[in-house]
Amino acid sequence: MTSAQTPSDRAGGSPGSPKSSLRIQWEGGVFVHTSLGLINRELCLRLMEAGHEVSLLPSEPDHFSPAVDARFQRLASRVQAPLAQPVDVHVRHQWPPALTPPPEGHWVIIQPWEYGSLPKEWIPVINEQVDEVWVPTHFVKDCYERSGVTPDRVQIVPWGVDVQKFHPQARPAALPTQKRFKFLFVGTTIWRKDADILLDAYLNHFTAADDVCLVIKDLPGYPGRFVTERIRQAQADPRAPQIIHLTEALDPSALPGLYAACDCLVLPYRGEGFGLPIAEAMACGLPVIVTGYGAALDFCNADNAYLIPASVKKMAEKRVAQLETVDYPFLAEPAATDVARWMRYVYEHRDEARATGQRAAAVIASRFTWDHTARVVEERLRSLSRQPVRRYAIAAAEKEGEEMAKIKVVVMSEDGEKQLAKCLKALDQSRPANVRWEVEVAQRSEAAATALMGTSKYVVILSSDVIVTPGWLDLLLATAKDEPAWAALGPTANQAPASQRVKPKYENLKDDLRRYAAARARKHGRSCVQVPFLGGFCLLLRTEAAREVGGLNGHQPLAAALWDLYGRLRARGYRVGCVRGAYVHHEWLSEAEGANYDARPPSTTTASPAAGLTFERQATEPGAQSPAPLPTATSPSATQQGMAHLARGDFAAALAAFRQAVADHPDDADALCNLAELLRTQGQVEEASALFKRALTLDPNNAGAILGMGTLALDLGDRESARFFYEQALSRFPELAEVIEPVLRQWEAEATPVAARSNGASGQSQSARTPSVQAPPADHDTQEGLRCLARGDIVKAIEAFRRAAAEQPDDADVLCNLAEVLRTQGEYNEASGLFKRALEIDSNNAGAILGMASLAIDLGDPASACFFYAQARARYPELAEVLDPVIAQLERWERVPPSEDASRTAMAVQGAADDPLAAGRAALDRGDLPAAVRAFTEVTTCDPDLAAGHIALAMTLLALERPAEAIAPLRRALALAPTATAFNQLGVALYQTGDLDGAAAAFTDAQRADPADVAAYLNLIDLHRARGQYAPATETVKEALRRWPDHADVLAAFGVLCVELGDAEGAQIALQRLQAVAPDHAAVAALRQ
């Protein structure tokens, strides 16, 4: 800093007058063989060319002379060069990052991060002193934000490529090999780059006989090159495929020739911040095989790259090397089998791979060049130059004696990344000028409890579904400062306990919301009213007061812990209040935030409100304790009297009191649930059911009502309906997991036969408007069919359901049972007819409506599926939580205009003759397959975006043993709607045409599309056996047995594999288990031999 400047002078700078040129101090490696040096050189050169004054401060010794490139002479002249005027921006890009502020100017840190959770020590420095952090990808930005860095502090500045050097026409370098196809790996052979998985894939799936070579371009002197010895061993093995290991440093100008000399880049990274070698290879027109997770997805997709499926694995400790991290770091773990699969695929499909590489080159040239990057950098630099220097502004404020309130903000997040991002953005935009805060994202109340024991003066608890407004925190802080007795303060909101709830007037969450909040602040200001309870969605806690009464119980659900804390605060003379002028928008009030505690009297004890009502009763089934609903006191008089009577065991008096509570508050869902639960324990099932349903009508998210319906169903022996309600409760209230999950796991272990269900939300074979509470099916054939399904004996299940349908042809549920099983077996025509008959009998039948939706999905027709799911949602609002995500996903697939498709599917429900597939289906029904082909071909010509038409055409071609012709329509159907059924059919077609690799890929894609699709596993097993690949066949069988231990076809596949491997003991085990579940299965006779 110059002597003429003080922090207060620089805090203001000249924010209103952008300058034609900027003075930039750039700190980091310059003439070094690393990506950091490359980035520093390219960006500084372009900033200088744009007229900005740049001074370079090298952070490490040079690796090479600037004489290697004429352009670098200009850079060399600016090393340690003084600037004519004070620094505008100091950019630091080095490893490890230096966290000491520079002497002057705005402070920018360029710092990628590959390990998910950031080092703890970085967070306060970045939040309080750094003006901006530049990261190259959305993945890295997300890592910063999840670690607690203020979102607007992190800006995406993507890296680039010099497309004048890296392009498809680059001159190939000479390599010491006669092999024609060359894979390339560029980078350090460290664990994070996954060179070990690459070597496994290459050495295990190629041999010296293959016309292939792997070129590994390593970096010299980089620590941790643990695969070097393995490379040497492979090079000494005459049977191994060729490997060239390049360890010498290359001049930057030589790198394009290396890419041009090779045919495919393989980089199965575990962690990357950007992946410059990937972008450089793509710019040169190489196809790339890369991990389908993380940083590279900013510029790699399924159209321009070969993406390796990967899982995410957390590390065992919250640290990376010596750096303690905010949370457990994580990396991707690419699937080794898929690395090998893609390598073999590219090796055998070179023309297609070259076309993929050309598409990749176009993407890089259009969006990821250094010129693009430099424009983003210049924009960020100019933006910063118009703002105060952050660290000077804080220092100036402190110098002027302004109190800096130190706050810890705990954001409770259970709502997904998009909701969290909106919350954090609004939070950052509302930050008061005199506040220093640290933001932590958490899922449990333990984080808030820990924060209250920390050094912050205040702790804010905020739900991620809250959108805060400008000035909300200023009002809460000013109120707390005015009166120290306020220990807990909250704002008003649209979704809140009654003492905080207001009816707002705004139409959107942008300008309208801000105007409403500003008007409310002007009208009510700091007016504060004492309340018994503040919702846990948004509140300010005074840490000194909380510590005085023992803090927050982090082992309780948040709402219960807060209720307990409020009681102890009041007992010490503190107050809990709502600031009427502060307003925030809240999506919905959950149980975890105190939805049930509105009318509870102010507590001065530590009793947990989560206890609710508890009734003595016998477990419904031996060893199966069902979760009890959580009804809550709602009338301060009648309900409290009822609870007191219950505590004494006086059920008659309790019943009278709860009836009085309902009479006093007939529209209070909690009061209804209290009465319903007591009636249920006394065996008054019908009245209890009606009360629970009425409660759900009033409040579809009421935990007591949802769990009450589940427990009622269990009492009546309808475990499937009980499971439905318990799963609904679990999805809405994750904090109940400890109560509900053990019950669900026990049922799963007992493997009680349940009705056939389709993938997704379909398969409900009940005609009531809500999932019915009724006894299990009484007819023998239906019960037999369910038992066969549980054993995986589909053939016998179908026979039993056919008998039931013959005996009860007018029972919609019976028809749906048969239709659903036929659908899962690909008998689409008969299934469709049965579902339609069921709808004619009962137009509101849930099983039939949802069955038609699943049928549409199987046929690749997302628009029709959307129509039926929307019909189900309209008839059954309680299924909205299940169906809405499905509908949203289908709408993204949909290609047919909604109006046309809605009318078409409506006709399909009525069985109209002008169904676009009707002519083809009619031809199939009469056995005229050539006519069906003509009809379906006409459909695909007239409506090329109807996936169902392509599926129908392909399946008919397969039936005619014309698999080669079926491939194109199947690929088109998959482009429109990637379903497991379509992937399986594509695999069959590819297998029949001899493309075994393609078939394996298609069956694997079917597994990914639907992990519950047993056909994909069976197809893969058969394919591996046919190829003599017994190791992967064995692994697939093991996984199938884990998922379906009693499925007849899986047991048959296990037995046949054991026979082929000479494992007599395994074959005998398979035979015994198969005889137990499906004695008539065709494989039984084969295994006996």
Explain what this protein looks like in three dimensions.
The protein has 1089 residues and is an alpha/beta fold. Among the domains are: 7-160 and 381-390, Rossmann fold (3-Layer(aba) Sandwich); 181-361, Glycogen Phosphorylase B (Rossmann fold, 3-Layer(aba) Sandwich); 403-609, Spore Coat Polysaccharide Biosynthesis Protein SpsA, Chain A (Alpha-Beta Complex), CATH 3.90.550; 612-735, Tetratricopeptide repeat domain (Serine Threonine Protein Phosphatase 5, Tetratricopeptide repeat), CATH 1.25.40.10; 1013-1089, Tetratricopeptide repeat domain (Serine Threonine Protein Phosphatase 5, Tetratricopeptide repeat, Alpha Horseshoe). It contains 45 helices and 24 strands. Strands 17, 18, 19, 20, 21, 22, 23 and 24 form an 8-stranded mixed sheet that branches. Strands 2-1-3-4-5-6 form a 6-stranded parallel sheet, with helices on both faces. A 6-stranded parallel sheet has the order 9-8-7-10-11-12, sandwiched between helices. The chain is flat, with a radius of gyration of 33 Å. The termini are far apart. Mean pLDDT is 78; it is low at 1-19, 599-636, 751-778 and 893-914.
